[in-house]
Amino acid sequence: MRILMLGNSLTTAHGLPDALARELGAEVRVHARGGARLAEHLNPKTRNGARTLAALERERWDFVVLQEMSHAPATTPAAYLASASRLCALSHAAGAVPVVYATWAYRDGCPRLRRLGMTYSQMHAAMHDEFARAARQGDALLADACDAFWGVADPAALYAPDGVHPSEAGALLAVRVLAETMRSAGSV
Questions:
Q1: pLDDT, tens digit (0-9, with 9 covering 90-100), for 89-148
Q2: Is the pTM of this model over 0.90?
Q3: Quick count: other Cβ atoms within 10 Å of Cβ 159?
Q4: Where are the beta strands (DSSP E) in the chain?
Q5: What number of other Cβ atoms are within 10 A of residue 8's Cβ?
Q6: For 19-55, what is each residue's pLDDT tens digit?
């Protein structure tokens, strides 16, 4: 099995791609840069865009995982949905199953959350709705780490000190969600 992961530091934190590869017995390739948005993967003039577009055109993938910049689904939903839809279409055209990697709201009380002017509940709801919409529109699987983080008894343990990135426990939870989602597709 071959998996292409498109994202940023939320995708690469704590060796998440390597852990996913071990969990599924798969080859996982990552195109990521800290702070990258999915739109970058569609722009042939960027390093990630050139690599991603060539990989989707020339290589065989079973799954393409799409991870947007941390707050974009909540703060710029139209741009997120446009990029996700285009990448889902390219993934389908390449014979791959797109996977919307639904990341989590910022930790409750985090300074970056306050700067966004949202509560934890508001950010979670906005993110969850946009991820679900992107998966529906793109005929993609939804790997819902957003709800997995939301549903734990002590969500603070899933976050790094910055309140944005996952802790090691958070990254492992995300790996489980991604792996279960791909297994549910029946290809794993």
A1: 999 999 999 999 999 999 999 999 999 999 999 999 999 999 999 999 999 999 999 999
A2: yes
A3: 20
A4: 2-7, 27-32, 63-66, 97-102, 141-144
A5: 22
A6: 999 999 999 999 999 999 999 999 999 999 999 999 9
For 94, the token pair is 């390449």
- Name the one residue in this structure whose structure tokens are 């983080």: 149
| CB-based burial, 79-105: b 16+ in 10 Å, e otherwise | bbbbbbbebbebbeebebbbbbbbbbb
H helical segments located in 59-119 = 72-75, 77-93, 111-116
Tokens of residue 177, six digits = 């969600």
Tokens at residue 72, please? 């974009």
User: Is the distance from CB of 30 to CB of 17 less than 8 angstroms?
Assistant: yes
Residue found under tokens 């991820």: 131
